[in-house]
Amino acid sequence: MTNPSADSNPFALWQEWLEKGRDFWTKLPNEAGADPYQMWRHLWQAWADAWVKFLTQGASPELIQTGQKLWAEQAQAWTKAFTLAMGTDAVDPQQMWRQLFGGWSASWVKFFTQEASPELLETGRKRWTEQIEAWTRVLAQTMGTEAYATYLSQTAGQGLNWLEKFQETVHPQMDVTLRMLNLPSRSQIDRLLDQIAEVDKRLDDLADQNKAVLKEKIAQVERGLDDLARQNQSILKQMGLRAEAGTAKASTARTNRTSPRRPTRRSPTRSASA
Amino acid sequence: MGDTSSAASPLGAFKDEAAQRLGNWFEEFVLDPTIPPLGVTPKDLVLRRGKARLFRYRPQRKRLYPLPFIVLSWVGISPKYALDLMPGNSYIEYLVKQGHDVYLLDWGVPGEEDRDFGFEECIFDIIPRTIERAREVSNAEEVTLNGVCLGGMLSSIYLALNPDAPVRNHVALVAGIDSDHGGLFKAWLNDFPADQLIRVYGMVPPHLMGTGFKLLRPLGDTAAISALWFNLARKDYITMFKAMNRWANDFIPMPGRFFLQLAKEIYAKNALAKGDFFVGGQRVDLSRHTQPLLVAAAKNDHIVPPLSARALLDLVSSEDKEYVELPGGHISVFAGRGASTSLWPKIDQWVSQRSQKASRADKH
Asked: Residue A217: which domain range?
């Protein structure tokens, strides 16, 4: 690997690591030669089994020491697998990152000590922003590769496998322990939540039914009122005809009554008063 | 020693600015680190269905347009106060002040008990009720539907399955349709153990949701902190940073079945764009969408790349359709300073022009 210097381009180191990494994930040495991920699956499985066994073995005076020993053994196993995968030369990944960041920081030191600029801070800010954007592009390019996506899926799958097994092992025990302590267990809370969700849904459905029934009732009442209004109109029409005739007679009668009455009523009064 | 005041030398200016930065940092992050109140535009709850809530925003001026403007938010992922972030920087507040009768459909915070909540519940239950309720409350014949992000995907699917729905206008903001241009999410979800994830968690839990989104831009937080450092002299920037930083780190779960349909059908198989996506046994044919359509995307959107959003224009049968692209990222479309001066006025103008004509039914 190149030594870091103020002029070294950190992205060249990144490119080199990317290429090595591509080989790392696709040309893993294994005995069968057919499945490059077999070694990693075995390693994950062994790791998961060891930790499940450790966590479920129960309390003991040597628990902490056993845990530490297990951690150290696994760290060694992973380091061995990693160096084996990288090739015949033992490579320290930390050295790679040290070189990468060494070159990057050296370039910044050079910028601040040797570049003469009246707007040093502003130029520095611009350079920093450009580098962030460049790193973002490089990372996006790396993470968009099929190899990375496969790695991500496999890692997620392995992690979920472990979690599923852990849940299957631990949940029943936790359930029993909590029930013994008369505390709500996860399964009880889950059932309760499901029931609440079901009740909520039923209430919503009832509200819908009520709304539909209310709408129908209102529509019925409106229809009834419309019918009533129509009946009233026809009755009024009929009444109107009689009323018109009656009115004519009545008005005639009134006229007859009124005309002689008025002069009769008023004249004697006025005549009397006068 | 020489005069080091700002008037005399650059060193003086640097000293003054440094003092102001330190003062601002101390005031805003040590003495009073509280986040400004978010999502404060006054509103009333008008509909509840499960965990979904429909809010109607109170007018801040006379309502000018007869059509309710319904904003359909995304399901899960993050809280919806991003659409109404802060006074002066709120998409919803802007629309209300322009005289629109604004509604927001908030899907709520899903939990493990919502593992069976999927696209069917959204399309056949909640969205039709939302439209009906908005029409009832506002006494309107038709509405404008504005889907944002996943909400835009849902509104597009709804209109494809219900072309005669009482929706006059459709606005789709950063709505991913064609996942062949889906960016990193497409690459990652192609072969992702989605079934296993839902089996273990019942949903996509907030911490995994956050991990997924942060992985899209691993240096995003570094860039945000850097930008804050460069702008520490500006108090308005700090206030905005606090609000955005709060939202950018606030994740909520996604319902289990919804995620399975999204990951396995829409992302992995690109079923929606190809016309192979089924909801409740019905095939979603986007060509049945005929409403006027405005599609907006962001040039540097790493969540919904512009080509993924733009694809909707080519799939619908609408005659009246338009596309706008903003510089900036995904969030800038509904919570950015640039959007408030360019995109939001464009949306307001586009919708208002189409909200005053006679109803669509009368035209046929």
From this structure: 188-250
